[in-house]
Amino acid sequence: MKQKMQKGTKEFLLLTVGTLIVAAGVYFFKFPNNFSTGGVSGISIILGAFLPHITPATLMLIINMVLLAIGFLVFGRKFGIRTAYCSTLLSFSTWAMEKIYPMNAPFTDEPMLELCFAVGLPAVGSAILFNMDGSTGGTDIVAMIMKKFTNLDIGKALMVSDMIITFSAFTFGIKTGLFSILGLIMKSLLVDVVIENINMCKYLTIITSNPDPICDYIINKLHRGATTHDAKGAYNHENKEIVLTVMSRRQAVLLRRFVKTVDPKAFVLITNTSEIIGKGFRGVS
């Protein structure tokens, strides 16, 4: 019970931190520069140009709350609690930032620097949320509804909608429009890179003639699992054993050092992997 509560608290904190990082990137860097890279924040920036009496943060709050209400009407209790929480927190935190620290102009006169933060912060925050099976809602809710009632390819539909929103940024001039297109490309690449690095582990294949101390070290010192199977060298026909294991980068360094002390002739292959499903890693979804 205690472990469940600790896990739930950790997940709640990560969802909160990830959402606040997204909010900071959107409010402090996207809104002042009119960078529209898709999503509800992009729609809010475009609409803000035609509705000068309503700020983008307020528009974002209104749109997200409407989409959230539609999501609950369509999906009922099955609608994701994490998505609802993150979407609500993003909307209200952005609105609160506007009240606490009004932004009348960008921080700097370097649009490329501003674009890096406008894309980088939301990408990092979104990666944290996606890694926790959460999202900030918005156009993701539209995608969920489309998936329920149509046979459309949701990924392509979202990409097209983001492109339309981004091209609308030419409302603010050719320079802003081009920066917005560049930002959309950067965003699509950066989120995947961040997610892969968050989940990055090391997959080790150890070919050895002395597997027992290695397995004992993996299980009792590193608290990881391992699988072994018999093998025979193709050149000298010596009997060997192959030890397969997956662990964090820090643990992999420790294991590599230990293997060399107990079997200097061991052959160790270390590979990066970011999709690991099983006990101690991800559950099967």
What does this structure look like?
- By secondary structure, the protein is α+β, with helices and mostly antiparallel strands.
- The chain folds into two domains: 197 residues, no CATH class; 73 residues, Alpha-Beta Plaits (2-Layer Sandwich).
- A four-stranded antiparallel beta sheet has the order 2-3-1-4.
- The mean pLDDT is 85.
Number of domains: 2
Helix fraction, binned, reads: 55-70%
- The tally of beta strands, per DSSP, is 4
Overall geometry comes to elongated
The whole-angstrom Rg is 24 Å
- Strand coverage percent: 5-15%
Assembly state of the chains shown: single chain
Please tell me the overall pLDDT: 85
What separation lies between the terminal Cα atoms?
22 Å
Uncertain runs are: none
**DSSP summary: helix tally:** 10
**Structure classification:** alpha+beta
Sheet with most strands = 4 strands, antiparallel
- In which order are the strands of the major sheet placed? 2-3-1-4
Comma- or semicolon-separated keywords:
single chain, 285 residues, alpha+beta, Alpha-Beta Plaits, 2 domains, elongated
